[in-house]
Amino acid sequence: MMNLRRSKGLVTKFIPVACVTWLLFLVMAFHNPVLAEEKILIAAAANLNPAMNDIIKGFKKEHPTIVAEVSYGSSGNFFAQIKQGAPFDIFFSADTTYPVRLEDEGLAVKGESKIYAFGSIVLWIPRSSSLNPRKGLPLVSDNKVKKLAIANQKLAPYGMAAEEALRYYGLWDKVQDKLVFGENISQTAQFVLSGAADVGIIALSQAISPKMENDGDYWIIPAESYNKLGQAYTILQRGKGKSDVKKFLEFVQGKKGEKVFLKYGYSLPK
């Protein structure tokens, strides 16, 4: 009898514990999807770093419960990563080609790509240099210029624009021995900032960013010398149908988002 009573006591004590455990499991099971919905994973071209950081801050003020995480890099690298299954919701490319290709391959939502801004490139020189950027792009053939930094044109649309501009001015063949290539436009800027290169062709958005505006001077490379840098985003399959993704893109395309892009030297689609 004593063993039976003891067993009944154990069962009685176990039932509340089991119920609590089950309730906790249910709470976690239904709570986790909400947290996942509130976290947006964004892949963004490196030239967007200054502008996108401001956009994220502004978005956070309006939607404090939604977490938006951004990874920066070259558009070509992100294209390859997404094809290999990288878990992003939105891809902000530095061109229009990669988003369309992702849609064509079924990795992005068909018909969702949209141009959000047009970028520009500049010739950037550190303030410590005696070189004068006002001489324009032909300056890169000067004997004082030992290293010219541009982004890898196979991965970065801004690197391709740099090559096109150099070819336009008949300088491409003349600077072959001087070229150093950044994996993306941010690394390219870092080469010049660190002294690893004497001059660089970078994004206007970087040149006028708080990080670089006091460290150098620049000359805006005429737009007719390279193909227009239309930049598009696309919604990847992971972000399909997510309300938070929709809210973020509405903010980007709204007046506050447009104001940030204009602040960093981008022009907007009509």
Quick summary:
By secondary structure, the protein is an alpha/beta fold. Helix content is 42%, strand content 20%.
Note down, in words, how this protein is organized.
With 270 residues, the chain is α/β, with parallel strands linked by helices. 42% of the residues lie in helices and 20% in strands. It contains nine helices and ten strands. The protein has a five-stranded mixed sheet with strand order 2-1-3-10-4, sandwiched between helices. Strands 7-6-8-5-9 form a five-stranded mixed sheet. Strand 1, helix 2 (49-62) and strand 2 form a beta-alpha-beta unit. The longest helix is centred in the N-terminal third of the chain and has 36 residues, at 2-37. The chain is globular and about 55 Å long. The chain starts with a helix and ends in a 7-residue tail after the last helix. Residues 1-36 have low confidence and may be disordered.
CA gyration radius, whole angstroms: 25 Å
Q: What average pLDDT do the residues reach? A: 89
What count of helical segments does DSSP give?
Answer: 9
Largest sheet: 5 strands, mixed
Give the total of beta strands. 10
Poorly predicted residue ranges = 1-36
Structure class:
alpha/beta
Which bin fits the share of residues in helices?
Answer: 40-55%
